[in-house]
């Protein structure tokens, strides 16, 4: 399941054309000899560092209540029968996986979900009416409680039944043919139907809305894109499976509750599914959206009809939808068109499909998203589908479902209560300090990088320095002045009908999205996600990182935790989000959040070479029992962030320990593990995961994150500091990295010398056919010429941390594109591998 550990970050370097230079010999001979000296000295240093990692100056135990609690959950997680150097995820999470079960109402158990469950019940607690509630609460909080109460009042939901929804469908949307004995299609108009549904925040068939202009991040623009599919991803529709069977059964069972005449239902369900299957053929996957060239096209409202010359009138759809929110579009308004071939193809498909199929399908998609608001008999049908699709076996507690609804729609009102009762501001203050330290570590990594040219590096450092951070919550939530909160939720007034409350909320949200078009982007403002979420974010358009109150909890963070736990927990998350500003997507945005070229072409090419190796590495990860491979292209942004985040947090923690060598005490029962080892252990523990097979398949189809085991074993296998911390054997990785690094650094130093002194070196007699560059490599290899007995070679292989001489030559040269250029090697030819690996 996990890849074998091999220290060092894997980065690929493509082969280039041959290059030759005519220069003399003396400096490169000296430098070639120095390569060996450099590698040997680095080896000694590596051994010292590895030895130092085994002990700390302070072996005292931390016996505070927090440390005892942390020790308990980590001891109960570790599987010490596993080898950390072979499968670190199993070593840290093996016992946790064995002892934890997936809740019946979920498809996954992991640290994030455990924290979310805790947060869910905290939200339920603060929304539940109590005699201790403030009698002078803001209206926003009063209405949040009213919404919650309408949701948990199941008797009222049962009494109301389905009538409010059916009344809306019949009176505003033109009915639902599948449940009607007769249906008149003479007035059917797909454009009019979609417009009416868009007022209730439904993007069906096509998506329209407002977003930040990626080239001018101070303004908003209009968007037209593909919408979503009932099953989420295209691949589900390509082959018949138990999921597609369950999906059609879901449709059939729902409709059967609304109609006594089942004679036509089966055919209607088949027609709806076949229609959606046809749409799915043109649907862009996550990978395609991220990596297709020209994925979006910029135009204006006035030119939109010329660009989208289709039977479906996108211009009228867009202008009429915004007009419903009292926003008048102008011809000059910017429109971003995404997935244009989907828009063309689906427009053509709906022209050829009967009105009955279109009406049935569109209303089905509306109903599909409303089932959680309906009586129990309808929700049970959804539970049956989720059992197949997601692997869950029961519905979540009604109180939790309702708390989630309120948190989704009125999260900032909920957060005002949450931070007052459950959040410690010490977490906020310490997080600012950690961000500063981790940002500094990342900037040092940028500064030390050898593959970025000076112009790109300078701008990257400027961007890193410009990253805005948001921690815990926006300040206004802690203030006694509730004016901003009251304005934010002025329209959010609710009665006892949960269904009507949800329909009202949908209309409010649709208007809010349209009306934001005429506002300016607040670059320093808190984003749209409330503090009551267990997550963290990087927003490219703002160059902003956000760490809500919900994630600043154990095991990610605690104000009383040893620093190795905090840096291995929230520290890695901080580094992860910072790195997102420089992953395959984030690196396209400058420090002001604008998508403009700011790296040189040379640096971009080298970045692509490096990230390609990450893609290849993760694509080789598998889940054997399910016979599925990870998709490194789909997860590359998160994988890059995972690798970078671990390094940044580690180096920041190292700096902390250098300044505070005796600050951290060891945990009781875990004293044999050094603080450095505990940093990695807590990092891995945050990704301990157990999930249903169905959910694994869902994630492989759609999630941009790798599975937990890959998020642990991938970054640690790429990090030599991990090998040193756990004294992994055989530890040739550190020596191999030293050899690779020594060769590169000496070569680049020699290059700089020849640029400054182009005529300094003369060729050697009898070897004049070899360029000075080739002689550099020849002399490097000559220093490792070796002959030994078979018995000594065997002993070396079994015990020595250094590779054999031939490998110390072939390895580094095969990983170095400049060697290929010097000798005009072709990819795959002998010493030249197609996939080149290097280390930051």
TrEMBL record:
Give me the Gene Ontology terms describing cellular component: plasma membrane
UniProt cross-references to Gene3D superfamilies, sorted A to Z: Collagenase (Catalytic Domain) (3.40.390.10), Neutral endopeptidase , domain2 (1.10.1380.10)
Cofactors, names only: Zn(2+)
Entry superkingdom: Eukaryota
Query: Which part of the chain is the Peptidase M13 C-terminal domain?
Result: 535-730, 731-838
Which residues span the membrane? 28-50
Task: Look up the record and give one Gene Ontology term from the biological process aspect.
Answer: protein processing
Q: Which UniProt keywords apply?
A: Hydrolase, Membrane, Metal-binding, Metalloprotease, Protease, Transmembrane, Transmembrane helix, Zinc
Quote the PROSITE patterns the UniProt record gives.
NEPRILYSIN
User: Does the record's keyword annotation contain Flavoprotein?
Assistant: no
Which SUPFAM superfamilies does the record associate with it? Metalloproteases ('zincins'), catalytic domain
Enumerate the GO terms in the molecular function aspect: metal ion binding; metalloendopeptidase activity
Start and end of every Peptidase M13 N-terminal domain?
84-474
- PANTHER family under this entry? PHOSPHATE-REGULATING NEUTRAL ENDOPEPTIDASE PHEX, ZINC METALLOPROTEASE FAMILY M13 NEPRILYSIN-RELATED
Report what the protein is called. Uncharacterized protein
Write down the species: Adineta steineri
